[in-house]
């Protein structure tokens, strides 16, 4: 039995070239980038080259990239860092009800510390209304944090339009682009965002490394204290192997982005066509015309998510009920609750399939046929 991995939105396998690059760095370039001797200078060169490549991938400046331990830390630094830096100007934050827990839980932390947070609703396709953002804005709003693409249903938010709305407002605009980076073309200048979070392990890079884009001039309180690394915003010796591996993954995914997007769209359609050909009843969660192409979230009427996941796993297929950060508890997805309400049956019968490196047309068809078998019995 072939094992088929369809949970790339949770994490993705490291690309072989990334692994090879990191092993070489671990072996040959172990210096501290803050050291002045030749070992340190070599580490600094590697760090600078990686920062430049990553900055270019989103049309940012070299100095606007702050390396973190991943998307969660990047989100925390963006939200708490902004709140602390701007708290004398106001204590109101706007976000949405479908954000990743790294954003939602950080906002809950702010609420416990005297800040007010507005959680905007979404429609049944998982998209926030620009008019709702406009109505929620106040004179004391200091931060708006809205994800670029949702990690559970793949819905894309109107980030560019929101950025335009905020152009004449003093609030800082942050987008969690962890799920979209490497799939969507991101241009921070065109989007008019001030802060943008990413993570390497979603694009076939290593775990434990990410970055936060910080627009020049944006005030941000430090997330860690100690040294003066990352322009005093994130102290600690830089993870050179992880950063170089991240940069390698970025270069690979940038070169293959358009081909990957087309391939994932084909996988989506093949999966749906296979289910339809066998008269399987299902509903798509989200709008396939406006979503991340590697994510397919399906509701199967009459099914149960726990049973489905167990049966899929026994068939060698790795899928998910939603965010990996809450997996294992089988609590209703907060994203689906926001889209359909607490009483909807979709929150108990929906599965997320997400595509990526090494998936083939044959694997997708096989996985869909296994779903057919499970649903028919």
From TrEMBL:
Cofactor(s) the record lists: pyridoxal 5'-phosphate
EC number, UniProt record: 2.8.1.7
GO molecular function: cysteine desulfurase activity
Record key words, sorted: Iron, Iron-sulfur, Metal-binding, Pyridoxal phosphate, Transferase
Classification via NCBIfam families: PRK02948.1
PANTHER family, A to Z: CYSTEINE DESULFURASE (PTHR11601:SF34), CYSTEINE DESULFURYLASE FAMILY MEMBER (PTHR11601)
SUPFAM superfamilies: PLP-dependent transferases
Aminotransferase class V domain sequence ranges: 4-365
Reactions this protein catalyses: (sulfur carrier)-H + L-cysteine = (sulfur carrier)-SH + L-alanine
InterPro entries: Aminotrans_V_dom (IPR000192), Aminotrans_V_PyrdxlP_BS (IPR020578), Cysteine_dSase (IPR016454), PyrdxlP-dep_Trfase (IPR015424), PyrdxlP-dep_Trfase_major (IPR015421), PyrdxlP-dep_Trfase_small (IPR015422)
Pfam families: Aminotran_5
UniProt similarity note: Belongs to the class-V pyridoxal-phosphate-dependent aminotransferase family. NifS/IscS subfamily.
Name of the protein in question: cysteine desulfurase
